[in-house]
Description:
This protein is 48% helix and 5% strand. By secondary structure, it is mainly alpha-helical. Strands 1-2 form a two-stranded antiparallel ribbon. Strands 3-4 form a two-stranded antiparallel ribbon. Strand 1 (79-80) and strand 2 (86-87) form a beta hairpin. Helix 3 (43-55) crosses helix 4, helix 3 (43-55) packs parallel to helix 6 (119-127) and helix 7 runs antiparallel to helix 8. The chain is elongated, with a radius of gyration of 29 Å. The mean pLDDT is 84.
Amino acid sequence: MNLIRDFSIIIKEIVKYCTSKELNLLSSAKIHLLGKWLLLNCSNFLITSSNMKATKSSTSSSSNNNDQLVDTVKNAKLFLNQNNELCAASQFINPIFKDRYLPILDTKWMPAKDLIAEEKCINILKELRMRNCLQLKVDEIIDLYEHSAKQSDANRRLLAELIVDMLMNRYQEANNLSQPTPTATQQPDTSSIEKLLNEYSTTKAVTLRHFLMSVNWIPLQHERPQSYPQSLIWKGAELSPASGDIKIRYSSPRDCVDTQYAYCVGSVTCVSSLDIPVELKPFIDLKQVNLDNVVRHLKLTTKCFQSSALKAEWYDYLTVAKRCYEYMSTYEAQDIFRELKANDLSEWIWNGAGFSTNGSNNLITE
């Protein structure tokens, strides 16, 4: 134990010297080299100390010394990031974990490349409280969004997927879900997601929930889904004025509907292209579909069919009509007829070769 205590004193003195503005005469690069030396040569000691702290298996005095040492190293700015700024381990984002998100992460969160090249360094940085990309704070998410507005569509979509991934991770952690979703009788724990969404940014004066509801971060589905008629209007298609190419648009949750409703309302409202797990739908509050939306879409469907449908598209029009009928069947007949009348739609029943008024009552009651 004396050897461990003496070694603790040595490490503490190194850290104290490196982080002291009065004593330290070393450049950032030299401090970084000392920090890297600690990671490579004192790793077993740091991990042992960290584990002892977690299990509380040591004596009181030695445990306190180890706790102090690990906390000292965790909080010390000993390592360079990719902007050549000294950082503590907790300021880093793990570059190995879910590396598909690396293109959108700020380089100030990335450990210097010589640390990334050493697997041992990354492993010890994780022990020293290095976070991963699913543990971003509200300020960091907002900064990423503001920066992503100037980036490519691919990076903007990556950010949207990262936000969904973060929320799903909170849900799974709270419900211990490496296993299946809770049963119908078991209420899922949503407190962790609520905590994240209610996290307040003092610099932006907004909660994450309010921010996500008010900005255009959700990518819209710009192409018609399979079996959606090409001659039927698609709200997501927008030509770029400069090139004439389809331009991917983004919206806030309140201005687009879930992708499952694409065939029911695709001509009258925008459709999200995000794959949102069912567990998260109560928290990513997309626009609600209503009967008026579906009837207006059905009316445009009948008009587009009459004016421009090719015979080859008849099956696609039938697919759209069926989806509309399925949604409408969840309402009372009187409500449906009220909307049909309000939208001046009388010929809306598919008869095999087009739309007509025949059999309307039978279809509703069935």
